[in-house]
Design goal:
5-stranded mixed β-sheet; binds dioxothiomolybdenum(VI) ion; globular; disordered N terminus; about 775 residues; 7-stranded mixed β-sheet; alpha+beta
């Protein structure tokens, strides 16, 4: 009999099982719509069946006859809420199309009435009995629809400051030895989180509690307060778990303040669970994009000129854009780069963040074009990327804090067996199946934002961490508990974590893959404050205190130093010396380079994100390389993906188990974005057609065969105290290009428009 290996200490870097695993698999985890309410009324939304025009009149007679009906709220009797500013322009809102204000309709599926009843069923029945007469005008649905307008993104949107540019693209491209010019398209997509867009609003006197799945409880709290015209201190947003969000729950949608206002008027809690179809229009989506890429290279494959032009759809009133040229112009060494992002306004709901918002569409274009260039040069696509690898981004000349792109390609290639691939297209097959191998790079900016935390440590080691972070399936509870466990030297099991509540110390939006870096940095800093107090108490000798300070590390000091501290804290002795049984500390952390107003903004629900290529003298990204095998049936054109392999480097991995899940999920989603997912638009009506999970295609188990995640170790002490780059949005980038590159390898046919449809294949 062998002896069991010693239990690893449950702390940073260990594959600790999820903190919330048992709660989730036993059904104990309470999601927003699960929270029991005292005598709730139920709301059901009525949404517009036209995309543009106005409401002439409502006929509510049939709806009013439904048993259990309480009220029907339309623009004619709704409270007029205050305006809301777009999240991406410094506000809180997902859209400035604010319903129930006038008779005007600006998008299909706009909220036009809210029916409130004693039961969900009665509210739904009455909602379907509401009759509406409209005067409809022809909407402009998408690119090339008459009536759209197009303008450069720069200057319209606070978050898109610049079209990156360096050197003289036109001249360099003109004289380049080898040239590629190609256009690419990506489709509309919707997040379709399992958990629907729910909201429950409960008033207690003049205080409001909102139970709603949110990626940003501080943003929602402040945004709703602003719309209702009340003090933000009177609003609390609670959600211990979010059942999927992917960006769709990061900003405030119009539904929340409307339901809060109705609940206030009724003097009763009101609960809304919007239908899945309604989720397509009352929240955001990934807009369709178009790209033109031009690459000039020399015969050796060194890039001499690169131009990326992107166009994105947005709504009439809002300039939302993802602007992925920030990334694509900086990924490879190239002396002459130019870019341009335009926003095309259509009669649509306002789009928004959806997992890796900029990189999914823009890297599809770049990484497809790189493969086209490799084919033209008759060069291995990995070798092409090696020849253009750089430790300095070409636009501002800033060094990458660390960059393991080529190491990822090497490790990924090994795991995949890239060496077995025959380079010529159409050279591999088995029976009726054409086989293709493709690869692509992925990257995602390392981002961080100010965060605060409160930590309470007891003499017996029990620890409570409070921070208004968000469990969106990412493993937030787990990594926060790990950070505290590591820093305080207490077992993981003794740490309890409170998140998802705006009464807790503020944390940023759980978006842009910043959560682990931001929340863990704040928690580690506050744990350091506790250690300092205990060290001081137990080591009255000044010289020893100084030594402790040195080894423990504060603020920006890399945590590795603290971990290796040769002075572990003896809790009981330290507490005895302190003469207390509990120590509690609160602290506010901000990343290097965060603006002066960071902490004030943080409390007001505004994110001051730092990172990516926008840092002063450096650039920080996580990287990866993805490999796929496709098998295409030569008769039916069925496309199967028997193998997906991704190798990733993202700084310190807080927990390989949760990281693996994120990356695996990303690879699957990336495959989905290439082969399955698209929201179909009926251009006559600017209406989403497949607004349900039966028609909106997502992968099922049978679509997913082998998925392999390789995690490279990478140490980066230039990003944040936790050394964490963030990887939630790393793996679903580039997969779409890798698949199209593999399809080219299998068939000799280049697909430049997603998703790939069987009928597009001309074999
Ligand atoms: Mo994400 S799209 O940053 O939730």
């Amino acid at each position: 009999m062998s002896t069991a290996a010693p239990e690893p200490k449950a702390n940073m870097g260990k594959s600790v099982p999820r903190y919330d695993a048992a709660a989730k698999v036993t059904g104990k985890a309470q999601y927003a719509a699960d929270v029991p309410l005292n005598n709730p009324a139920f709301a059901y939304l009525v949404t517009s069946s036209i995309a543009k025009g106005r409401i002439d009149r409502f006929d509510l007679s049939a709806a009013r006859k439904v048993r259990g009906i309480i009220d029907i709220v339309t623009h004619e009797n709704a409270e007029k809420l205050k305006e809301a500013k777009l999240f991406s322009n410094g506000g809180y809102a997902s859209t400035t199309i604010q319903p129930l204000k006038t008779a005007d309709i600006a998008q299909d599926g706009q909220i036009i009435a809210v029916v409130v009843a004693e039961t969900f069923e009665a509210a739904r029945e009455a909602a379907h009995a509401v009759k509406v007469s409209y005067t409809a005008t022809d909407p402009a649905a998408t690119f090339d629809s008459p009536g759209t307008t197009s303008a450069r993104a720069k200057g319209q949107l606070a978050q898109f400051k610049e079209d990156p540019k360096v050197g003289d693209f036109a001249r360099a491209f003109d004289t380049a030895e080898v040239k590629i010019t190609a256009s690419y398209e990506t489709p509309t997509q919707h997040h379709n989180p399992m958990e629907l867009f729910a909201t429950s609003c409960v008033w207690n006197g003049d205080s409001l509690t909102i139970y709603e799945p949110s990626q940003y409880v501080y943003g929602l709290k402040n945004g709703v307060a602003e719309q209702l015209g009340i003090d933000a201190d009177k609003v609390r947003v609670v959600n211990a778990y979010v059942g999927g969000a992917f960006g769709s729950k990061g900003s405030m949608t119009p539904r929340t303040a409307i339901i809060a206002s109705i609940a206030r008027r009724l003097g009763r809690p009101v609960k809304l669970v919007a239908g899945r179809d309604q989720g397509f229009t009352i929240a955001t989506y990934r807009a369709e994009t178009r790209h033109q890429i031009q690459i000039g290279a020399d015969h050796d494959g060194k890039l001499v000129a690169l131009r990326h032009e992107g166009e994105e759809i947005s709504s009439r009133p809002d300039a939302y854009a993802v602007g992925g040229t920030k990334t694509t112009t900086r990924l490879y060494a190239c002396p002459n780069v130019e870019s341009l992002v335009s926003i095309v306004r259509a009669d649509r709901n306002t789009p928004g963040f959806m997992r890796s918002p900029p990189e999914v569409p823009y890297m599809f274009a770049l990484e497809s074009a790189m493969d086209e260039l490799a084919v033209k040069l008759n060069l291995d696509p990995i070798e092409l990327r090696r020849r253009n690898d750089t430790m300095t981004e070409p636009i501002g000349g800033k060094p990458y804090t660390s960059r393991s792109l080529m190491a990822c390609f090497e490790e990924g290639a090994k795991a995949f067996g890239w060496a077995e691939r025959k380079p010529e297209p159409k050279s591999m097959s088995e029976g009726d199946w054409l086989i293709g191998h493709g690869c692509a790079a992925t990257c995602y900016p390392t981002q961080m934002a100010p965060a605060a935390a409160r930590v309470r440590l007891q003499r017996d080691g029990r620890t409570r961490v409070e921070i208004a972070g968000h469990e969106i399936g990412n493993g937030a509870y787990t990594v926060i508990a790990q950070a505290a466990s590591e820093k305080l030297g207490v077992p993981f099991e003794k740490v309890s974590v409170l998140i998802g509540d705006s009464d807790l110390p503020p944390a940023p939006v759980a978006g842009g893959s910043n959560s682990t870096a931001s929340t863990c940095s704040a928690v580690m800093m506050v744990c350091d404050q506790i250690r300092q107090r205990l060290f001081k108490a137990s080591m009255p000798d000044e010289s020893l205190v100084d030594k402790a300070k040195e080894t423990v590390g504060l603020g920006q000091t890399p945590v590795t130093q603290a971990t290796k501290s040769d002075r572990p804290l003896n809790l009981e002795q330290a507490f005895d010396a302190l003469g207390a049984s509990v120590v509690e500390e609160y602290g506010e952390w901000k990343p290097e380079g965060a603006p002066l107003d960071s902490f004030r903004a943080m409390h007001q629900g505004h994110v001051r994100m730092v990172g990516g290529g926008e840092m002063k003298d450096k650039i920080a990204y996580a990287f990866g390389a993805e490999f796929v095998e496709v098998r295409i049936n030569r008769w039916t054109h069925e496309i199967r993906v028997p193998r997906l392999v991704g190798a990733f480097a993202a700084g310190r991995i807080m927990n390989p188990r949760t990281a693996h899940s994120q990356l695996m999920g990303g690879l699957i989603w990336g495959m989905s974005s290439a082969l399955l997912e698209a929201t179909e638009l009926d251009e006559r009506y600017a209406r989403y057609v497949n607004d349900n999970l039966a028609d909106y295609l997502v992968p099922v188990n049978a679509d997913v065969l082998n998925v392999e995640v390789v995690l490279l170790s990478e140490e980066d002490n230039h990003i944040n105290p936790a050394g964490v780059k963030g990887l939630g949005e790393l793996a679903n980038v580039g997969t779409n290009a890798a698949i199209c590159n593999a399809i080219f390898h299998a068939t000799g046919q280049r697909i430049r428009k997603l998703p790939v449809r069987l009928e597009d294949l001309k074999i």
